[in-house]
């Protein structure tokens, strides 16, 4: 993989983690990417636990132990595991409103030849990833 396919980021206090990743992707002229690695701290988080209809708001300080997923300009899918000041860990879908406390360090893999969208999948009942090469018509 070419070196310019990687985008190391350092996010700052107050940044919305998910929005900042989507903005960084768009700023590179990309529509698709993946988080290769991510860690840092959050002042608050929005985490949707498995099977839950709504996100759970967590107030920090929180440590980002893991961060992974697809990033797209129109439908990211990110998972995180977070620990609180007692060392308890929760994991789930990372929503908007996760505010960086001190820092977040993320390595994005850029996929400039791809476009990611989310489309309804009757088998799962959810909007699921549909990766397409840029310029390829929808199936």
From TrEMBL:
InterPro entries noted in UniProt: PPC_dom
MF GO annotations: DNA binding
Gene3D superfamilies: Hypothetical protein, similar to alpha- acetolactate decarboxylase, domain 2
Lineage: Bacteria, Pseudomonadati, Pseudomonadota, Betaproteobacteria, Burkholderiales
Stored CDD domains: DUF296
PROSITE patterns membership: PPC
The UniProt record lists the keyword DNA-binding: yes
Span of domain PPC: 1-132
Official protein name in the record: PPC domain-containing DNA-binding protein
Keywords, in A-Z order: DNA-binding
Keyword DNA-binding attributed: yes
Domain of life: Bacteria
Pfam families named in the record: PCC
